[in-house]
Amino acid sequence: MTFDSDTYMPKSKAPKMDDLDYIPADLSPEERSELEEIRRRKGALFLEIQRLKEELREAIIEVEGLESSTEGSKTLQKSRHVAMGRKKFNMDPKKGIVFLVENELLRHTSEDIAQFLYKGEGLNKTAIGDYLGERDDFNIKVLQAFVDLHEFTDLNLVQALRQFLWSFRLPGEAQKIDRMMEAFAQRYCHCNPGVFQSTDTCYVLSFSIIMLNTSLHNPNVRDKPTVERFISMNRGINDGGDLPEELLRVSVNNISQFLLYFWANECLGELKNWVKRLNGNDLVFCFRSAVSVDPFYEMLAARKKRISLKKKEEQP
């Protein structure tokens, strides 16, 4: 027996996930909220794309009109230099910045360079991450200014991490990631005072969430961490105390359904390989420095030890 699909379920009546009013009946309240947030972001992205298309069209018209005049030629030359500077930056971030500064297209201040990287127009996200991760004093100032451009007020930690990690790609060197996540933790705690006892707590939990994202969405990790294991592995990180279980459960559920960032298997070169080598009970975010000599273990173990020592010092 065959059915005419249009007779059985007319296309106009068949529910679709793209329909703005359609919400599957089997979704939990958290899933419904997440679906609404995704649709809101989708709408905002669509409007942004339309705006960029209109700006591009206007820019093309403007360039075509400027080419016929001397002043227009100067403007066109400047635009070409900016495009060349962006290309140089994507090949070698430091040389690109030097080129833009020497051609008076960018001021050599941490605030101006941070704004340039934050806008990210025509810039490679990997190159942005490499530049922000450098340990030179000036680069560290740029990193701080870059992080300060992000507004994390009233966002939960997963939402803030998504926003932060969307603006660049984390480099593969542990020391660079350490500096960037330290700056993120300080900014998040500044925007949301009282959520965590200290920036150390925010730092450790942020790392846990990043590792959780990689473990859950990396096909090479067969033994996926459960909510209970994640809660257990993060006990005592809040200045010796435990974080609310609900906060940790929401984080796991959120990450299990939606990637923290879309290039999970393309960046974190060292981290991706470390996760592959782990067995079921020794996932990256359990902070057992004795299991491995990898830098991530050392960083997280040292940070957790500092939290424990600080708690002991405060005890009478």
Structural commentary:
With 316 residues, this protein is mainly alpha-helical. The chain has two domains: 76-144, Annexin V, domain 1; 153-314, Arf Nucleotide-binding Site Opener, domain 2. Helices cover 63% and strands 0% of the residues. It is built from 14 helices and no strands. It has helices spanning 5-8, 29-66, 70-91, 93-102, 110-119, 125-133, 137-148, 157-166, 174-191, 199-217, 227-233, 245-257, 269-276, 295-314. α10 packs antiparallel against α14. The longest helix is centred in the first third of the chain and has 38 residues, at 29-66. Residues 1-14 and 262-297 have low confidence and may be disordered.
Topology:
Layout: H1 5-8, H2 29-66, H3 70-91, H4 93-102, H5 110-119, H6 125-133, H7 137-148, H8 157-166, H9 174-191, H10 199-217, H11 227-233, H12 245-257, H13 269-276, H14 295-314
Helix pairs in contact: 3-4, 5-7, 7-9, 9-10, 10-12, 10-14, 11-12
